[in-house]
Amino acid sequence: MIKKVTIYDIAKVLNVTAATVSRALNNNKNISEATKKLVLETAEKMNYEPNKLALALKSGKSNNIGVIVPRINTNFFGSIIRGIEDELNPSGYHIIICQSHNDETKEINNIESLINSQVDAIFISTSSKHSEQFEKILKKNIPLIFFDRKKTMDGVSSVTIDDFAGGYMATKHLIDQGCRKIAHLASGDFKIEIFHDRHEGYKQALIDHGIDYREDYVIHTTSKIAEGKIAVAQLFELDEKPDAIFSSSDFLALGAIQELKARNIKIPEEVAVIGFANEPFTNFEELSISTIDQFPVEMGQMTARVFLEQMATSQNIKIDKKVVMEPKLIIRKSSKK
Amino acid sequence: MIKKVTIYDIAKVLNVTAATVSRALNNNKNISEATKKLVLETAEKMNYEPNKLALALKSGKSNNIGVIVPRINTNFFGSIIRGIEDELNPSGYHIIICQSHNDETKEINNIESLINSQVDAIFISTSSKHSEQFEKILKKNIPLIFFDRKKTMDGVSSVTIDDFAGGYMATKHLIDQGCRKIAHLASGDFKIEIFHDRHEGYKQALIDHGIDYREDYVIHTTSKIAEGKIAVAQLFELDEKPDAIFSSSDFLALGAIQELKARNIKIPEEVAVIGFANEPFTNFEELSISTIDQFPVEMGQMTARVFLEQMATSQNIKIDKKVVMEPKLIIRKSSKK
C-alpha cells in the first residue's frame, strides 16, 4: 500500500508547521503569497491529494451542518444534537437544526431550506415513508447520514441503535417479572423502521417464551402523555386485561401509569410498565419508570465521527458505514416486582 | 394620508387575481413573459411601492429564518419555536435553529453560521452580556428580533414577558400563604435581563410587604435539578432556615423539592416552593409544582407577527416595537397551604 502524502509531509519538507501548510492550501489571507506559492508547488510535486474535508474548506462552503429531527424538545434528540456539536465544533463546523414534526412534507421543506443554506452535510432522523428527497441530496453531492430513524439506502451511512434488541429486552424483562399478558403501545407508524423493529423484538420475545401474540394487545398511537391514558382505557375494555405494558415511548408510558393510578391499579404488582428512551423524567424519584437507554449523546458523537471519517477519505473512495449501537435495559420501580 | 397602492389595486385594473400579480412581481416561472411585462408596467404607472416582504422574496433570498435559543430541549424554547413555525410557515418561511448553550462565544458563532446561511432574519433569545455582534447583524440589513432574553437596543424589536411581574407575583403568592422567610434561587446571571428582573420583582414584593431582603437567602446557580439540591443544602446550613423558595427555574425547583423530601421536610407546610416556566413535568400529578406560565407558544407567534409586520411596512419606515406579555401565576400543591 502506498502511503498517502499528508500536509505533515509537506510541512516537514518545507520546515514549516502543518498549520501553515493547511492555511496556505486553504488560501488563508494571513499567509503571504510567496508561502502560498511555495506550498502549492511542493504539494503538487509530492502528488499531494487533498482530502474531502480540505476541499470543502477550500471551496468556501458554509462549514454548517444541517441536522433534521422529528422534534427538538425531547431530551433524546437534544442529547443527540449535543453529541454532534461536541464532536464537530472543534473541527470548525457549526450545527443548524430543523424539526419535521413527524411530517413528511415538512421534512422535505427542511431539506430544501438546508440545501438553500448551503450546508456541507445533512444528518437526519427521518419521519418519511419515501426516499426520493434523499436521492436529491445525494445528487447534489451533499453528504447524508441517517441517525436513529433511518432509511436503508446504498451508499448512505447510518448510526442507529438495535431497536429489535431494545423491544426484545424490554419484553423479556416483563416476562422475567412473571407477566404473561403483555400489551404494546406503539408510538409511531410501523413503516418507520424503529417502531417496526421494536414491535418485532416484542413479538419475538413473546414467541420465544411460548406466549401468544395478540393483535388486540397492540395499540397504535402517538408519543403523548394524553394518548397513554387513552390507550390504557382502551386496553381495559378487553375481557382479558393485560398485566404489563411495553411502550415504545416514555411519554406514553407516563400517561399509561397516570391512568392506571387513577383506576387504583397497583404498579408494578398488577400491571408492570416499561417505556423507551430514558427521558430524564423517568428517573425522577416520584416516577421511577423502567426504560431502555439509547445513549443519545454517544449516538450523536458517532454520527459526527462517521461524517469526519468520510470527509478525511480521498474522494474516490465511497464509504457506506452502518453503525448499530446496543441499547441498555434500565429497571426501575414501575416494573420491578 | 395617501392610500398606498397594493397588489389588489393592480389586480383590479388588469382584471387578474392578486396572486397572479404577486407571482409576476416575484418573477415566478409559471407566469408568461407577456403577463409579467404588463404587471410590471402597470405597477410602475400606478407608483406601486413593493413592501419589504415582496422585496425579500424577489431578491432570491433563502426564505429561511434563523432562531437562536440557549437550549432546544426544554418545553419552553421548544414551544416558542413551534409558535414561530405555526405563524411563519404559511408565509413560505422555514425555521432553522441554533443553540448557544448559554455561551457567548457559541452565540457569536451561531450568528456567523446563520449569516453565512443567508437567513432573511434572526430571532434570538440572547445569553450575551455584550451587544457588538447584534450591531453586525443590523449593519448587514438583516432584521433582528429579540424574544424572552433581550438586549435593550434602539431600532430593534423585542417580545418578552414581564419578568419583574413574574417574580413579584410568585413572591407575593408565597407571602399570601403566610411565608416570611422566602429564599430565591436565581438560575442565571443578573446581567441577563430576565434573571435580573425576576430578582427585582422578588425584592420589591418583600419590601412592599415589610419583609427584610436578605442576601444570604439568594442563591446564584444554574438551571439544573442537581443544583437545586445543592442550593437547599446550602440554605439549610443557615441559622434561620427559609420557609419558602421562589426559584427562577422549574428544574431548580424540582431539585429543591427532591432535597427537601430527602430531609423529611413537609412541602408546602414547612417549606412552600414555586418555580418558573410551567415546564410540563411541573404539572405531573406526582409532582404538582406551582410555577409562572410564560405562554411560550404565544410568545413565538407574537415574535413572528412582529417580523411579518416589519416586512409588510415600506422600507423607509423603521419599526421598533417592544411587546411585553403578562405572565400568569399557576398555583399547585407545592405551595398551596
UniProtKB/TrEMBL annotation, chains A, B:
It holds the Pfam family LacI. Coiled coil: none annotated. One of its GO terms (molecular function) is transcription cis-regulatory region binding. Residues 5-59 form the HTH lacI-type domain. CDD domains: HTH_LacI, PBP1_LacI_sugar_binding-like. Signal peptide: none annotated. The keyword Coiled coil does not apply. InterPro entries: HTH_LacI, Lambda_DNA-bd_dom_sf, Peripla_BP/Lac1_sug-bd_dom, Peripla_BP_I. The keyword Cell membrane does not apply. SMART domains: HTH_LACI. This is LacI family transcriptional regulator. It comes from Kaistella flava (ex Peng et al. 2021).
